[in-house]
């Protein structure tokens, strides 16, 4: 075997180095560990780091946004703990359940993609008691001069199945139309107007979502007028007819105590709103209650 000439060996090595450099330069991309994984964006997990609030015993569903990397993705808790009653759906990338205990909880979620890249993010969420149910009109900021549609929105509906809304409008404003909003589905609607006072009875066949517009009231003024919620009251009931919420002005005041020797007058109670009991069956009319003078569509 002929010994390798050192000079020739060095020349051959230099030629191979130049050839390799030319080959890599022609590819237009330097081979690095990062570029081997492809040109996809970096893996991220919900960059805002925030989740919707949780309320005791209220159904909760919150998706956890994952992007970049290469799907499919998975999730797991790597530190801290989820609120009792809440579970992590790894395949569906969401938190679900009904919170069972109030408090503030901090936990870390880790997402992993199909290339085994991973990303962690810490979350803090507070479980609190559910705020009270409210019904409120969304009013224009200034005066109205033409026909205006005013939505009435419900928040934190709990188990509401019926509600009565009473709204006293300013002089010169009249109601031209009352209709169900997008939160009622195929609910029930009964309308009565006496002078400037509008009374609407609502029946819900399913509990509306929080933030839904359950009622739309069209108001037309005779002249420029500003609408206010000062004369707006409501009362909400569950499926058994129990009052579960109401504005302070909607509460029936306690009768005054008569002086000694003064006969007590007979009080006429205000008929309650009766929730629907069966699909297609409207609330029963209360004897002595005048029928509605108009109806919504």
Automatic annotation (TrEMBL):
<feature type="compositionally biased region" description="Low complexity">
    <location>
        <begin position="245"/>
        <end position="265"/>
    </location>
</feature>
<protein>
    <submittedName>
        <fullName>Uncharacterized protein</fullName>
    </submittedName>
</protein>
<dbReference type="InterPro" id="IPR013783">
    <property type="entry name" value="Ig-like_fold"/>
</dbReference>
<feature type="region of interest" description="Disordered">
    <location>
        <begin position="245"/>
        <end position="297"/>
    </location>
</feature>
<dbReference type="Pfam" id="PF05345">
    <property type="entry name" value="He_PIG"/>
</dbReference>
<dbReference type="InterPro" id="IPR015919">
    <property type="entry name" value="Cadherin-like_sf"/>
</dbReference>
<dbReference type="GO" id="GO:0005509">
    <property type="term" value="F:calcium ion binding"/>
</dbReference>
<dbReference type="GO" id="GO:0016020">
    <property type="term" value="C:membrane"/>
</dbReference>
<feature type="compositionally biased region" description="Pro residues">
    <location>
        <begin position="266"/>
        <end position="297"/>
    </location>
</feature>
